[in-house]
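Chapter summary example: a protein plus GLP.
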Amino acid sequence: MEVNICKSYEELSKKAAQLVADVINQKPNAVLGLATGSSPVGLYKELIRMHKEEGLDFSQVVTFNLDEYVGLPADHPQSYHYFMEENLFKDINVPKENIHIPSGTTKNYKAFCEWYEQRIKECGGIDIQILGIGSDGHIAFNEPGSSLSSRTRLKTLARQTIEDNARFFDKVEDVPIYAITMGVGTILEARRLVLVANGEKKADAVAKMIEGPVTSMITASALQLHPDAHVFIDEDAASKLTMRDYYDWIQEKKPGAPVQ
Ligand code: GLP
């Protein structure tokens, strides 16, 4: 796992966005895995800037979102469909038919989840997956205890997650209890992973993800199993890492490493 500790949220967002842009520039029909939550908003702002100012082209890009709340229609202001439209899609040129987001209103969740997995395969697999991390260490909605080989499925949200996400709703009772989410196994199949996290509230989860054992109790720790995972965090989110000196040392010495 490559650990990048950045001075600010802006810096980490820009660096993470650059990795995504590199993939699109190398492969114009790249398949992007997208995340919601407040963490990737800066990354999306930077992608929008690159699109508008530098001509970053999404016209052949295909996207798959990680998750969606069960019961929220696409036009609900707290749905992840709505979030993606507002924070990214309305400002870039990705064709509507190339966008995939799990349905929160399907009549048959099992069939939908199977279709979603199949669709990712048909599109050639995810080239780069953007991720945030929950304060309980989850990725997407893979709550503690989720199998590290899990696939897209319906999940019951943890109380902690419901409380964390209540800030976006009028009251905690309005937060859906269930979600449809890509599994940890699905996420691990992406060719490259990019996780962004900021703020002290994420410090414990970040330390467990990077330095703790690989465990289904912290599903983000599964990133340790991935050969090409990049983590971008700010000073606050990095504050509980014990190997801090080493991560700084690696970043400092990296430019001098022999070219492979
Ligand atoms: C939700 C999402 C996750 C996200 C997490 C953290 O639970 N399903 O994908 O990483 O929230 O959100 P935030 O970035 O707002 O802290």
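Key point: Residues 2-254 form a domain with the Rossmann fold fold (CATH 3.40.50.1360).
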